[in-house]
TrEMBL record:
Family indicated by similarity: Belongs to the bacterial solute-binding protein 2 family.
Protein's cellular compartments: Cell envelope
Listed GO CC annotations: cell envelope
Gene3D superfamilies named among the record's database cross-references: 3.40.50.2300
Limits of the Periplasmic binding protein domain: 50-308
Major subcellular location class: other
Species of the source: Rhizobium pisi
Protein name per its UniProtKB record: Ribose transport system substrate-binding protein
Molecular function per GO: carbohydrate binding
Length: 336
């Protein structure tokens, strides 16, 4: 999407009207390649205590969103109460319990398995604490700030299918279907593939893990390559985020199987560097804007506390980076 027009030719004003009618919003300060631009009506969180609950901060997306939220709360005059569960579900539940007991003016939850966090998001709302989320599809969230994961999943799947010529076996990591964005991206892959009968998802699907994601993906892909030693027997490897993609790409390079392409989501700098390498098997990665997603979520908190009505979801644009355009994408995102 450009600043003035979307890919379908709609102007930004038209896009905003359509989005509002659908109960979503396009973040006003999320234009790709631009520094944050804030509304003329300055928002404030003065005197407000805003809780920020992160599932973990070991991944590029999570850390960028988390730090940006803390900075934005401070910029708007509020007090951030920021906690990181370190990818431990038990600790995540405990930190949500603690935050609810502290009665902040709002809670923002960054990611998390819905079955784990949703009961506690409900408890927060029942306690009269507004709940907003980042990448969490919960009915207990007033507003969820995210990328358009339906579009991300479709675009990545179409890129993969195009690159392999519409036929061949693909390996899929599907370890986090309980995390809303991962589920949406996976479902979109399946929706696209069903229209290409010569494309087959190999079974059983692989399960990516946390922690040690890169090493585990490397090990699993090495084992798959031993099972399918002939060139052409596997065409691509897909994952819902790009850290398994990193491990898979390393395994392909180590085995000399660079004819296989890898695909993922998030835009981690190390993966974009691999895509930029013409000799690397990294094929494409959808680059999100995690810092802008974080800032937007906090601005939505300020709007809510000021009495404004929020849409159900606020979308921040993302860009598909492939071998042909990765230099342009990284330049636009300011991470090249």
């Amino acid at each position: 999407m450009s600043i003035e027009k979307s890919d379908n030719g709609l102007g930004r004003r038209d896009l905003l009207k359509l989005s509002a009618a659908a109960g979503v919003a396009v973040a006003g300060a999320s234009l790709i390649g631009q520094k944050p631009v804030f509304a003329t009506e300055e928002l404030s969180l003065k005197g407000k205590r805003i809780a920020i609950s992160a599932t973990g901060t070991d991944h590029f997306f999570d850390l960028q969103a988390y730090n940006a939220q803390i900075e934005e709360v401070k910029r708007l005059g509020g007090e951030p109460i920021a906690v990181d569960a370190g990818r431990n579900d038990g600790k995540l539940v405990s930190q949500l319990q603690t935050l609810i007991a502290q009665k902040p003016d709002a809670i923002v939850q960054i990611l998390g398995t819905l079955s784990v966090i949703d009961p506690w998001l409900k408890k927060a709302r029942d306690a009269g604490i507004p709940v907003l989320t980042v990448d969490v599809g919960s009915t207990n969230s007033i507003n969820n700030t995210t990328s358009d994961n339906w579009g991300i999943g479709k675009d990545l799947a179409l890129q993969l299918v195009s690159d392999i010529g519409g036929e061949g076996n693909i390996v899929v990591f599907n370890g986090f279907y309980g995390v809303t964005p991962c589920a949406i991206r996976y479902d979109q892959l399946v929706n696209v593939v069903k229209y290409f009968p010569k494309v087959k998802i190999l079974q059983p699907e692989l399960r990516d893990v946390i922690p040690n994601t890169v090493q585990d993906a490397f090990t699993q892909i090495t084992a798959i390559l031993n099972k399918y030693p002939e060139k052409g027997s596997i065409k691509a490897i897909w994952s819902a985020w790009d850290i398994p993609q990193l491990g898979a790409t390393q395994a392909l390079a180590a085995a000399g199987r660079t004819e296989i392409r890898t695909y993922g989501v998030d835009g981690s700098p190390e993966v974009l560097q691999l895509i930029a390498d013409p000799n690397s098997p990294a094929g494409a990665d959808v680059a999100q804007q995690p810092a802008e997603i974080g800032r937007t979520a906090i601005r939505n908190v300020a709007k809510l506390l000021a009495g404004q009505t929020l849409p159900r979801e606020t979308y921040v644009p993302a860009l598909l980076a492939n071998k042909a355009n990765v230099g342009e994408v990284t330049k636009k995102l300011g991470i090249g």
